[in-house]
Amino acid sequence: MSYFEHDGCQLHYEDYGRGMPVVLVHGLGSSIRDWEYQIPALAGRYRVVALDVRGHGRSDKPRERYSIATFSEDLVALIDHLGLVDVHLVGISMGGMIGFQLAVDHPELLRSLTIVNSGPEVKAHTPGDYWQIAKRWSLSRLLSLEQIAKGLGRLLFPLPEQADLRRKVEERWPQNDKRAYLAALDAIIGWGVRERLRRIQCPTLVVTADRDYTPVALKEAYVKELPAARLVVIENSRHATPLDQPERFNTTLLDFLDEVERNKDQAPC
């Protein structure tokens, strides 16, 4: 286990393999462990660095307000701590939001960007949006982490053959610090950088599950606003695509990274 300190917070990360760096950023309430099917596949060809976001996993959980910008600056500090240059950044859900934030604030750090089941904003535009956000905010406070884990396990992995994945959610989710979990959720609500997407000039891969929380059409819309992006839809998948479709996801990601490496003369981010 490796740690570094940024802004008074001790942050945990793991470092595998050799080659061009691929940095993995997990989602809300998760940790490095949710990349368990990706790290071995990637580390044979790349240097893989995975971070436990502030308030998650083995990283410190300071009692303070969190923000996506703070999470992003923690990630920048990790990149600087390791002396990395031109990183391939991969983020899922909240990790994708952190990736968007870093990409618009520090585009010079990125060789490529991969966004998984995420978007460049979490803002309410319709009455239905307000209702969904308010419902999630309220239930997260009313329910215990154990109750959330059981409901999330059924939502993400409903099939009989996914019993082991449900069990992992039910075991791991209650290990969160409830206060830190809620602070991270609050950081997501109202966040957005969509108006700055034109700053992201590097090759960008957007991966979406066909049954993600938000429809494919929403990803299609923002992909058109990115200068060098493509969209890949993973079928028979929900929000946790790297876990429920690891082989298809790994192949898609590796094909993209290998293509970027073959075209090294592309304009930098």
TrEMBL record:
Keywords for this protein: Hydrolase
GO molecular function: hydrolase activity
Pfam families tied to this protein: Abhydrolase_1
Keyword Oxidoreductase part of the UniProt annotation: no
Annotated transmembrane regions: none
SUPFAM superfamilies from the UniProt entry: alpha/beta-Hydrolases
Name of the molecule in the record: Beta-ketoadipate enol-lactone hydrolase
Organism: Metapseudomonas furukawaii
